[in-house]
Amino acid sequence: MSELGRSEPAAVWREYWTRGRGSAAFVFGLGVTALLIAVALVSLVWTPHPIDAIDIPNRMQPPSADHWLGTDLYGRDVLSRLMAGAVNSIAVSLVAVGIGAGLGVPLGALAAARRGLVEEVVMRFNDFTFAFPALLSAVMITAVLGPGAINSIIAIGIFNIPVFARLTRGASLSLWKRDFVLAARVAGKGRTRITVEHILPNIASLLIVQMTIQFALAILAEAGLSYLGLGTQPPAPSWGKMLNEAQTLMSLAPHLAIFPGLAIMVTVLGLNLLGDGLRDLLDPRLRRQR
Amino acid sequence: MALFLLQRLTALVVTLLVASLVVFLVMEVLPGDPAAVMLGINARPDTLAALRQQMGLDLPAAQRYVLWLGGLASGDLGTSYTYGVSVWELVRERLGLSLPLALIAICLSTALAIPLGVLAAARRGRAADAGVMGFTQLGIAIPNFWFAILLILLFGVHWQILPAGGFAGWEAGAWPALKTLILPAVALALPQAAILARVTRSSVLETLGEDFVRTARAKGLTRSAALWRHAVRNALIPVVTIMGLQFSFLLAGTIIIENVFYLPGLGRLVFQAIAQHDLIVVKDLVMLLAAAVVVVNFLVDLAYAVIDPRLRGGRSYE
Amino acid sequence: MTLLSVTDLCVTLDTPDGPAPILQDVSFELAAGQSLGIVGESGCGKSMTALALMGLLPAQARVAGEIEFEGENLLALPEAQLCNIRGRRLAMVFQEPMTALNPVKTIGFQVAEGLRWHLGLSRGAAEARAVKLLARVGLPQPRFSPDLYPHQLSGGQRQRVVIAMALACEPALLIADEPTTALDVTSQAAILDLLAEVTEAAGLALLLITHDLAVVWQNTARMLVMYAGRVVERGATPAVFERMAHPYTRGLFAASPGALEAALPAGRRLATIPGQVPDPRHRPAGCVFAGRCPRVQDDCLPAQPAERALDAAHGVACLHPCLEEEGVP
Amino acid sequence: MSGDDVLLKVENLTLDYALPRRRLFAAPPRHRALDDVSLTLARGESLAVVGESGSGKSTLARTILALEAPTAGRVTLCGKDVFAASPGELRKLRRHAQMVFQDPYGSLDPRRKVGWIVAEPLDALERVGRAEKLARIAEVLGSVGLKESDADRFPHEFSGGQRQRIAIARALITRPDLIVADEAVSALDVSVQAQVLNLFMDLRESLGLSYLFISHDLAVVRQVADRVIVMRDGKIVEEGETEAVFGAPRHPYTRALLAAVPRIGGPRRRAV
């Protein structure tokens, strides 16, 4: 019998926690993600230095006791700007993934439940949206509306829709073939009710895992867009923009190019490890073995 | 097979048409007056009127769309407002850089990823597997433009063994030109290779668990013979899918990487066109890049049929 | 002449919840050209026995004991030599013909592969032999071209391809693990006919693993009954069916609707074995069947009963075996 | 048989599936899964449909329960035409006919507790108060030999045979007249299979149920069915009282089918 034989939810969560603690990658991922969120929240009320405090005499300083990560071209504190940049990354990515999942999951579930023409239309729409990587739609949107954080949210969000639609449809289709769904139809339940009561709960863990991975990808995409100047606009701090500014000063102040990149990498690494860990943890094949 | 081809081709054409319609609507109808966008708010009325006429904005939208489509089909992409030359001319010139760059990057990432992925699967749970997986985690997490900056810092600024940016041009000879493409190609290829290696590993692992691999082992094939002769080809099916999807990321990547290295390619052209509000160029390029993605995914569909006989149709006794 | 001799074979599977003994002290012999059936319900260890013989156990399995095949202890052989024996002297037919064949290779290639691998035949020579082998198993040219892919064949036809692959290098022993379970009843009969015919004609020993008592009755000269990882009864097939000395054998027989000649009279029920097969990780100390046995007595509980001979061709691991005249419960 | 005694009547049921196109300008080929199938099932009767894979027997079961729409023909349950019924009427009809599936692992939602699973038809088809619902759950769990407390456990905590009992309990909760059992015991081991078959027989006696057994296993069918229908390629090839069909099969296919079943005590293939 499964080690999760006890049915109380609390026991199930305790079990997850015990197993999750055993995986170094999962713990690291969870830790980094928690840290990122904490830093972002703290930066809303406090940063070591005001993020926009220009201090020309002290510009391009290497890391010191006063400025832990040094100062930029205008003498602004790099650490403070990194902290504030986390807010920007999280906000853009969160909304973009929200758009992707919010539209993609219902579309995918609908395609799987209805089949036929509806499915055909949804999947064609998907194929077509895939032809526009976030950067390309961002290029289009920026060309017309001008650059800005909102545009990067829209561009990344649009590209996330087919990702979630595909995943949801694929996973739902295999569930629709299962006998317990047939049993629900014999019981007289309609397609919508079956989707809500059987399909979505059974793919929830899959979706959660995908969300963490897409969240990581969105952070990368946002950084890329703001690096190109198509995303978040100065003076608002963003990791991608900081790298852009650092590039021209590469030989003078290499530390400016190191820290924002490290911040992006560690964040994405943490989110990916968290996703992998969750996948192992929530995998029904592992959970239901008897 | 012919029917399969025809179905795919129809889907391809429909997708391209829809894509062109969306690009057209976003670029020409949404902004209201594209000419005003291009010239900015301080434009003089007569310049505006001249541009409107040059862009054909006095015609109804439907007619402009049809004209544009016809132009795309016949290779007449219009004239760039800022460069004053035909867009097709610009594209051809820049393709000479972007296409080799993309091809080198794809070859590099495939050559790196598939052997690594298979190796990791074959040595599952051992040091080689852990090493490959660690490398891929880093490769996925590293932003490609930052990786490019680091490459420049090391190879271009610190050791000064490779150029830090710019393109020598093919007329300078193959080697000098290639030399300028090495760092950009590596920067493009590495994150792709990381993803591809992971997909290869999990696909091979899944195939290794299949009954027919056990059958091959029961025939007396060694573990590695069963792996290479039976598992790898079957495992390539999802790998090819991901390679197709990656192509769109690769295009996006070239836009960034060409900017990091100041390479005069298509990506940089798009970027510059935005900065100069040259909507004609932006519209055509976005369409071309989207079409490239669609066509590559069409080719991936065809590749399936080569790998998997079940998709080829043909007689069946069932 | 003894072809295969298995002595005290134990297989333990490492699971996240600790080791699970799958096979315990399994011993049997098989002479060249003879047939042996292994029968039991799911989880009794019969498939694991087959995989242990082939050396294809999952990585989490630990093996002990001895498997002597043509004078060599397979468990002591290095992997390279095992590969030499596998497919050449020792071949196997699997349960699922739908998945046992590689979907992206032609059936001709798959049949020829063993020939090229073991016998070093050229591609042309191997494929010519493959065509003959396909015809031998009832898939003649030109209707069944070697260029067909598995998905173009029905389940029964695919199982014929698997049999042709197994026969390719003229092995000495063929292991068939539930070869007909996934097939329709008419294909099942045809495949069993084919297996009996080709093995007898080639003087090939057959180890037939099945859950179906009737299949064992039809197709094997000797048989083992396995329960919870142990052999509980063995002997010449007619002798075992005549007496059914182990209460489990008898219970299994009584519960099979196929054992009844006609429908039960109204109000009568099929005989059942109460309870379930114990979890391998929590098997009782004494007789593994004691918990479900109608004849259990106090002396069954302390230790697993040793096997004892009832006569020259019949053995049972039970302290209180059923007598022939007792009749089916 | 008078009209009141007829629980289920299937008339000239035909169902075609469209296959993928082979050529562009030809109509897509069609596969006739059911070909002019007619049968009647009396109240309290147990009827078996046997056949090999591809015979259309499972499609027949699904069509009778309105899970598939037929190309032609009629299904009348309790005197009402299933395919002419409004959604509301169909819901009422569903109470009278429930189904048990083959795979005891796949037919129960792994994320729901047994009580929820068993009560699912009740939730969808009837309005009952919480107290009555709990009472009904306890009642059906009891009648299949499970405990009332099992309602608070998850399916993965049960063995294959027990899961099949849960599936039967779910089918019983709307107090149906007809149970359609699609290969309901073929995934089970012999000893467990006998337990579940006995349960089917017990329930028929205590609740007066009618059964439509879909099965490939002739030996099982012989023990549970009053009448047998033999199907092949979507058509009925033989129909009759069970003992008559088994004792003296008329159609050559039925004879071939019966001859192919291995029998203990029958002819043997290998002597060594």
In short:
The complex is a heterotetramer of chains A (290), B (318), C (329) and D (272). By secondary structure, chain A is mostly helical.
Main sheet makeup of chain B: none
Number of strands of chain A: 0
The whole-number mean of residue pLDDT values of chain A reads: 84
Sequence of secondary-structure elements of chain B:
HHHHHHHHHHHH
Over all CA atoms, what is the radius of gyration of chain B? Answer: 24 Å
Q: Percentage of helical residues of chain A? A: over 70%
**Known CATH architecture of the largest domain in chain B:** Orthogonal Bundle
Whole-Å distance between the termini of chain B? 19 Å
Average predicted local confidence, pLDDT of chain B: 85
CATH topology of the largest domain in chain B: MetI-like fold
- Count the DSSP helices of chain A: 11
- Under CATH at level 1, the class of chain A stands as Mainly Alpha
Radius of gyration of chain A: 23 Å
Beta-strand content of chain B: under 5%
For CATH, the homologous superfamily of the largest domain in chain B is named as MetI-like
Question: Could you say what the CATH architecture of chain A is?
Answer: Orthogonal Bundle
Strand content of chain A: under 5%
If helices are DSSP runs of H or I spanning 4 or more residues, what is the number of helices of chain B? 12
Largest sheet of chain A: none
Shape of chain B: globular
State the low-pLDDT regions of chain B, or none. 314-318
Question: Could you give the topology of this structure?
Answer:
The complex is a heterotetramer of chains A (about 290), B (about 325), C (about 325) and D (about 270).
Chain A: H1 9-21, H2 24-45, H3 78-114, H4 116-130, H5 134-145, H6 149-176, H7 179-186, H8 191-228, H9 239-247, H10 255-282, H11 284-287
Helix pairs in contact in A: 2-3, 2-10, 3-4, 3-6, 3-8, 4-6, 5-6, 6-8, 7-8, 8-9, 8-10, 9-10
Chain C: E1 2-15, E2 18-31, E3 35-39, H1 46-54, E4 61-69, E5 72-73, H2 79-85, E6 90-93, H3 97-100, H4 107-119, H5 123-136, H6 155-167, E7 173-177, H7 185-202, E8 205-210, H8 213-219, E9 222-227, E10 230-236, H9 237-243, H10 247-255, E11 308-311, E12 314-316
Chain D: E1 6-18, E2 30-42, E3 46-50, H1 57-64, E4 72-77, E5 80-81, H2 87-94, E6 97-100, H3 114-125, H4 130-143, H5 160-172, E7 178-182, H6 190-207, E8 210-215, H7 218-224, E9 227-232, E10 235-241, H8 242-247, H9 252-260
Parallel strand pairs in D: 3-8, 3-9, 6-7, 7-8
Antiparallel strand pairs in D: 1-2, 1-4, 4-5, 9-10
Helix pairs in contact in D: 3-4, 3-5, 4-5, 5-6
